[in-house]
From TrEMBL:
The lineage of its organism: Bacteria, Pseudomonadati, Planctomycetota, Phycisphaerae, Phycisphaerales. It comes from Mucisphaera calidilacus. InterPro entries: DUF2617 (IPR024486). It comes from the Bacteria. This is DUF2617 domain-containing protein. Pfam families: DUF2617.
Length: 181
């Protein structure tokens, strides 16, 4: 694994926040989970190396995507786009009743550390019941995407982990969707 190849691979990933839902046909869906809690509804989709989380209350939506490139996604409703390189934070100003905050971290690991992390995260997904999807990339290397979450009365916390084998990259996001009156 070369360092420059690893750096280039994370430059293509972006976290994109929309103020509307996105159509599932825009994505290569591999896993899906829907849930309701109090007044909000959540839908989580996993795609190879990324995810989509739709958070909805009556008359208002926010959709978070982490995707390789994202140039096929619409610009209509795009609130913010954030490259998934290094460490980044973003806080959306309150829109009507919704607040959103996220942090993105990416790290390139050695092959041994990547394999240990892959095993640990696979075990974590099984223990917690997180929505997860494992696959092999074009080079035949094991990869994993998982989304774990916690529901509260007026908040939804979501953590994602995307392990990209050939590059040794681990991409992690932590986001909070909050309802305010």
């Amino acid at each position: 694994m070369s360092v420059s190849h690893k750096s280039q691979s994370t430059q293509m990933f972006r976290l994109m926040l929309y103020s509307r839902p996105l159509h599932p046909e825009l994505f290569d869906l591999q896993a899906r989970r829907m849930d309701h809690h109090g007044e909000y509804e959540i839908e989580t989709w996993l795609i190879p190396g990324g995810h989509v989380v739709r958070f909805q209350i009556p008359d208002q939506h926010l959709t978070e995507t982490v995707i390789d490139r994202g140039d096929h996604l619409p610009e209509n409703g795009l609130v913010h786009a954030l490259p998934c390189m290094g460490e980044k934070d973003y806080e959306m100003e309150q829109q009507d009743r919704l607040v959103y905050v996220t942090t993105v971290q990416s790290e390139s690991l050695t092959e041994n550390l990547y394999n240990a992390t892959l095993k640990e995260m696979t075990d974590f997904a099984e223990e917690t019941g997180s929505v997860s999807f494992d696959w092999k990339d074009a080079q035949g290397t094991e990869c994993l995407s998982l989304v774990d979450s916690q529901k509260y009365r007026s908040e939804y916390h979501v953590q994602s982990y995307h392990l990209l084998g050939s590059t040794g990259v681990v991409l992690r996001t932590q986001s909070i969707f909050e309802i305010r009156d």
